[in-house]
Input
Amino acid sequence: MQPFIHPFPPILDEHTRVLFLGSFPSIASFEQAFYYAHPRNAFWPILESIFNVRLETNEAKKRFCLEKGIGLWDVIGSCERSNSSDTNLKNCIPNDFEKLFHDYPNIKALGFTGKKSYDLFMKYFKDLEVEKILLPSTSPAHAAMKLEEKKKVYEDFYYAYSVRGELVEP
Output
């Protein structure tokens, strides 16, 4: 097992209303220094489909998220692992969510992009008062649900906390 520290900051600002949370970046995300970078991960295709956009670069993805009030981060700040599988994460130390919610009080809901991120968050932060929604995993390892079904769940989650892409005022 090798120790790893989360390699990039969260994507969010004072307008962020929904925060998508993964467990910890994959090896591909480490290599590309960006969220959901594995070529078979469905996260970006789902967002592109919901909003009918094409996001070609990491900078375009970041700009898009901030425009839509979407934040991205991971539950774990450091851990040990030998591959990208969530089942392989050991000695996990969470990111500081108390500070995050203090600094960004407009976050209304957390959408967990898989069961491991949800379980880890609940282990450390179950008492934090914010909506916590478990979404289907966008990982290529989770093929039990069709892409269109996942898209519908993500779309419903997003629009429950924003209005047609316009930010919901607190």
Summary: The chain has six helices and seven strands. The radius of gyration is 15 Å. The longest helix spans residues 147-160. The domain at 2-160 is CATH 3.40.470.10 (Uracil-DNA Glycosylase, subunit E).
